[in-house]
Amino acid sequence: MKKFIAILALCTISFAGTLSEVLERNELRVGVYRDNPPFSIMDGNEFIGFDIDFMKVLGQMFFGESNGQVRFIPISRQNISQSLERNSVDVVLPGFIGEIEVKKAIDSSYPYFAVDISALTRKADKITDLSQLEGKAVLAKQGSLKEYHLRNSGVFSSVIGCNEPNDCVKALLAGQAEAYIDNNLVVAALPQMDSSLEVGIKNLIGEPILFTIAVQKGNKSLLNKIDESLAQLHSNGYFKQIYHDYFEFFYKGALTEDEFVLDKYYNPSKDEKSE
Fold first, then answer.
1. Residue 11 — φ and ψ, nearest 5°?
2. Rounded distance, CA 73 to CA 52, Å?
3. In the beta sheet, which residues pair with residue 137?
4. Is 63 exposed, middle or buried (0-12, 13-18, 19+ CB in 10 A)?
5. Distance in angstroms (rounded) separating the CA atoms of residues 63 and 69
6. What is the DSSP letter of 66?
7. Which residues, listed in sequence order, are joined to residue 201 by a DSSP beta bridge?
8. How far apart are CA 43 and CA 37, in angstroms?
9. Domain locations in the chain as residue ranges
10. Per-residue CA distances from 264 to 92, 111, 177, 232, 270 (Å)
11. Do 2-115+207-265 and 117-201 agree at the fold level?
């Protein structure tokens, strides 16, 4: 069980260039994934998504009146640390600190987002705890990191891959598995489409997964600038506004403002910030 919980911990972003290098270049190079909705996804020849809009705002704060550019570069989940070491990107978001070698290569900022790993279940089954799924079949998006980690967790009898959330829901309703496991941004909306379903387990790993901006280890000047900018965005109500603009209407109360704003991490001390 502990192994299962540990390997589901995602995270962060990563910078390679120092602050002075980024400002001198007048360009922030951002590594993102092609298929990570709602955070980043390719739409024709350009990226769209929450992370894209967020980094454009952060870039404006970095460059001010100099009109610097934010350039988005596609990367794979397997080469986060390599991209930083080669200095091919300044930022990767979100990255994954579950891998020890990646965690050793970065320092993390205040979190800018949080997600839970949740289980969609049939109401009639009254599943409320991970122990009820031990030795059972579950569903996950085919080819995703979650599917890979679930398969290797040793908790479930089998992990069935499905192409899209709707396919996973159909398989769940057909009794092919006991739960569909995904992040809460996906799962929370699905009971609105079928009242026989519910989010039986809101968070499989006990704590929310924090998305941070990470810099290469020891890059203090850039880390401090990022934390400054994030604290300013929080103080100005940016994250609250993002919740109301992007999420409130869609989730109809299934996800609350408190799950997005992360007030407790924005304080003078970094004792509570993500590690």
1. 180, -120
2. 11
3. 158
4. middle
5. 8
6. G
7. 119
8. 11
9. 2-115+207-265, 117-201
10. 25, 10, 37, 15, 10
11. yes
For residue 94, whether the previous peptide bond is cis, meaning omega lies within 30 degrees of 0, is yes
> DSSP states of 77-131 as a string?
GGGHHHHHHTTS-SEESS--TTSHHHHHTEEEEEEEEEE-EEEEEEGGG---SGG
- Looking at the domain covering 117-201, what would its CATH class be? alpha beta
Residues ≥6 apart with Cβ < 8 Å to 6: 98
**Dihedral sign for Cα atoms in the order 198, 39, 258, 106:** positive
Instruction: Find, among 11, 1, 3, the residue nearest to 213 by Cα.
Output: 11
CATH number for the domain whose boundaries are 2-115+207-265: 3.40.190.10
pTM, 2 dp: 0.75
Cα–Cα distance between 274 and 258 in angstroms, integer? 17
Per-position pLDDT tens, the chain of length 275: 555 555 554 444 444 578 999 999 999 999 888 877 778 889 999 999 889 999 999 999 999 888 899 999 998 777 777 787 788 888 888 755 444 445 666 777 888 888 889 999 999 999 999 999 999 999 998 887 688 889 888 999 999 999 888 999 999 999 999 999 998 888 988 998 899 999 999 988 777 778 887 777 788 888 889 889 999 999 999 988 888 887 777 777 778 887 777 887 876 444 444 44
Helix runs in 106-247, H state only: 145-151, 165-173, 184-187, 220-235, 238-242
In angstroms, the Cα distances linking 32 to 42, 54, 69, 90 are 10, 12, 16, 11
